[in-house]
């Protein structure tokens, strides 16, 4: 990366501002928009499945194979599939074909996930099977929430040379001499008045002894994993994020979203998630003070509401082109099941200056757009509304032209970003 001069070389600058009465706008100026839809009784469907996953000690050596992930769907009729031909990681495991599925159903309301693994060989033949299958279902009927592992099965299963026939009881544990143990038909479930979930692992191997295969102690091997979950009725679901900075120089992300915090689709049950950092330093491009990012959300049968914030104590963008303090992006999303409301109330600057723009200060209006001659576009308090979301980027510099500052065309530098959505 070409380093910039220590001071920003001031070029003749021209403003292109939609409504230039910038100083007349209060720093607390915000935008709000609402949309309405027909009321429906919703459930949040969740689930995932994969064929194999291996952690060698504390290192993820083999990520989930053939994964399917529902995320947080609210619509029935979703059908996901994935397939891989084989997985090989000697001496830990080898498999044949792996198939996974995930479905959301409406009558009854149900989440179903499955994982099928053919020709399983674990620990150089210590655990083998022609096929293993996990099935997880969570459903809601008039009597409430229920879970089922019906469909979980083992074909030609053998452990330490001993065939295991018939139905394998859930959470069957067998010791593996000199290695650890294996749990067959491992099940974990939770059923409440407003939600339920079930996880099924057909095979789960744990290495807790020093061994002749030199497999690290602490290794976990999961084969045929399926999780299903339901929650509801809910007014809606959420998602969102906040981060302090992001710098993409040309087509290369030189600094990814810093200290990012995520708002889960089912909220945080009112608890504040926080991710703090000491700051970011890309000399000549972006230097900041401390970063404080938060996410909070609540969901019940009548409302779903979430808020994400990013606060950056100070920022120096492109060698004093932009200088600011107490930069705060604040986004809100909420719904009662029919009306969806989004706001950036709380977004503000403590102080703000832009080289060559004496009229710009902390009271800058939302969506102020400045043209930096020979460089590109500078956005201040940018607000992006989409049908189900709002995003705030308090500072965003987009480089569109070859320039003397050493910034590649296509560069995008952002400070204090938050996003919230409701569905």
Give a concise summary.
With 423 residues, the protein is mostly beta strands. The chain has strands at 14-15, 32-36, 42-56, 59-62, 68-69, 79-84, 88-89, 93-94, 98-106, 109-122, 127-141, 144-148, 153-155, 157-159, 162-164, 172-176, 180-191, 195-207, 220-234, 238-249, 252-255, 261-263, 273-277, 281-282, 286-288, 291-299, 304-317, 322-335, 339-343, 351-354, 368-372, 376-386, 389-399, 412-422. The chain is built from no helices and 34 strands.
List the helices and strands and how they pair.
Blueprint: E1 14-15, E2 32-36, E3 42-56, E4 59-62, E5 68-69, E6 79-84, E7 88-89, E8 93-94, E9 98-106, E10 109-122, E11 127-141, E12 144-148, E13 153-155, E14 157-159, E15 162-164, E16 172-176, E17 180-191, E18 195-207, E19 220-234, E20 238-249, E21 252-255, E22 261-263, E23 273-277, E24 281-282, E25 286-288, E26 291-299, E27 304-317, E28 322-335, E29 339-343, E30 351-354, E31 368-372, E32 376-386, E33 389-399, E34 412-422
Antiparallel strand pairs: 1-31, 2-29, 3-4, 3-5, 3-19, 6-9, 7-8, 8-10, 9-10, 10-11, 11-12, 11-13, 11-14, 14-15, 16-17, 17-18, 18-19, 20-21, 20-22, 20-34, 23-26, 24-25, 25-27, 26-27, 27-28, 28-29, 28-30, 31-32, 32-33, 33-34
Number of helices: 0
Low-pLDDT segments: 1-27
Helix content: under 10%
What's the total count of β strands? Answer: 34
For the biggest sheet, the summary is: 10 strands, antiparallel
How large, in whole angstroms, is the Cα Rg? 27 Å
End-to-end span in angstroms? 41 Å
Mind explaining what this structure looks like?
The protein is 0% helix and 59% strand. With 423 residues, it is mostly beta strands. Strands 6, 7, 8, 9, 10, 11, 12, 13, 14 and 15 form a ten-stranded antiparallel sheet that branches. Strands 2, 23, 24, 25, 26, 27, 28, 29 and 30 form a nine-stranded antiparallel sheet that branches. It is globular, with a radius of gyration of 27 Å. It starts with 13 loop residues before the first strand and ends with a strand.
């Amino acid at each position: 990366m070409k380093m910039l001069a220590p001071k920003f070389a001031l070029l003749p600058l021209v403003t292109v501002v939609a409504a230039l009465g910038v100083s007349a706008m209060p720093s607390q100026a915000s935008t709000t928009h609402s949309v309405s839809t027909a009321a429906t009784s919703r459930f949040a469907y969740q689930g995932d499945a994969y064929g194999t996953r291996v952690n060698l000690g504390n290192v993820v050596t083999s990520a989930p194979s053939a994964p399917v992930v529902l995320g947080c769907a609210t619509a029935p009729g979703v059908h996901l599939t994935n397939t891989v031909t084989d997985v090989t990681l000697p001496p830990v495991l080898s498999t044949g074909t792996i198939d996974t599925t995930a479905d959301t159903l409406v009558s009854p309301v149900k989440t179903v996930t499955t994982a099928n693994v053919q020709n399983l060989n674990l620990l150089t033949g210590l655990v083998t099977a022609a096929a293993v299958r996990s099935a997880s279902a969570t459903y809601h009927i008039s009597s409430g929430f229920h879970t089922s592992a019906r469909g979980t099965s083992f074909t030609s299963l053998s452990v330490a040379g001993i065939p295991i026939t018939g139905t394998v009881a859930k959470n069957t544990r067998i010791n593996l001499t000199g290695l650890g143990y294996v749990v067959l038909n491992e099940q974990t479930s939770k059923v409440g008045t407003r939600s339920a979930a079930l996880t099924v692992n057909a095979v789960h191997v744990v290495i807790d002894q020093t061994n002749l295969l030199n497999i690290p102690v602490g290794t976990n091997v999961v084969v045929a994993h399926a999780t299903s979950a339901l929650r509801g009725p809910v007014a809606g679901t959420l998602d969102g994020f906040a981060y302090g900075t992001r710098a993409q120089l040309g087509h290369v992300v030189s600094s990814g979203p810093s200290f990012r915090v995520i708002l889960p689709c089912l909220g945080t049950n009112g608890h504040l998630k926080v991710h703090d950092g000491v700051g970011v330093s890309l000399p000549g491009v972006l230097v900041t003070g401390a970063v404080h990012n938060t996410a909070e959300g609540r969901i019940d049968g009548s409302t779903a509401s979430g808020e994400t914030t990013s606060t950056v104590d100070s920022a120096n963008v492109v060698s004093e082109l932009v200088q600011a303090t107490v930069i705060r992006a604040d986004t809100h999303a909420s719904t009662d099941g029919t009306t969806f409301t989004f706001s950036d109330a709380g977004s503000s600057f403590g102080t703000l200056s832009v080289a060559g723009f004496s009229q710009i200060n902390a009271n800058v209006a939302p969506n102020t757009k400045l043209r930096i001659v020979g460089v590109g576009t500078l956005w201040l308090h940018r607000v992006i509304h989409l049908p189900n979301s709002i995003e705030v980027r308090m500072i965003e510099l987009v480089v569109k032209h070859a320039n003397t500052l050493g910034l590649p065309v296509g560069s995008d530098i952002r400070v204090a970003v938050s996003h919230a959505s409701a569905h």
